Amino acid sequence: MNSLVCAEVRDLPARTAICVEHVRLAYYYRDRLDLEGYASLLHEQVVDSAPGEEPRRGRPALLRRIAEWDRPATCHLIDRILVDGNTIVVVGRVRGELGPHYMSFVDIIELSGDCLLTRLSRYRADVPATPGRPFDIPNFPTTN
């Protein structure tokens, strides 16, 4: 997995490093359609949402969606991971969700006290990623 983390994981406080590793493992398991591994990182009441889609509530609903939707397997390339308390923001590119080309995405992930994923919010481009410009995400909320 290609990933650039703003700080080396070994330089982060222990709990933060564990949470970052859980998030990276979540992409690893999801890309390989390892639903058992992926489920082990999800809180029972996880909520998964994206603009224009109905949120999926609970681990079983999210796993059903992935089992039905992620065919063929996706491939996530992580460009950046940002951490703020219990929130991790992942910026990268994904292939396989909307076609054969890499698409830019930003995931905002909230974690429980024991580093389980509790809320997943995905923002993605609907056009192929521009090499060298992974931040072209339509409809991504910004602050002015």
Q: Could you characterize the architecture of this molecule?
A:
The chain has 144 residues and is of the alpha+beta class. Helix content is 24%, strand content 35%. The chain has helices spanning 14-31, 35-39, 59-69, and strands spanning 42-49, 56-57, 75-84, 87-95, 103-111, 117-128. The N and C termini lie far apart (33 Å).
Compute the CA-based radius of gyration: 14 Å
Major sheet strand order: 2-1-6-5-4-3
In percent, how helical is the residue content?
10-25%
- Report mean pLDDT, rounded to a whole number: 80
Main β sheet profile: 6 strands, mixed
Q: Give a count of the beta strands, DSSP E runs of length 2 or more.
A: 6
Tell me the strand percentage band.
Answer: 25-35%
The SS-based structural class is alpha+beta
Q: Could you give the order of the helices and strands? A: HHEEHEEEE
Multimerization status: single chain
Any idea what the shape is?
globular
Put simply, the count of helices is 3
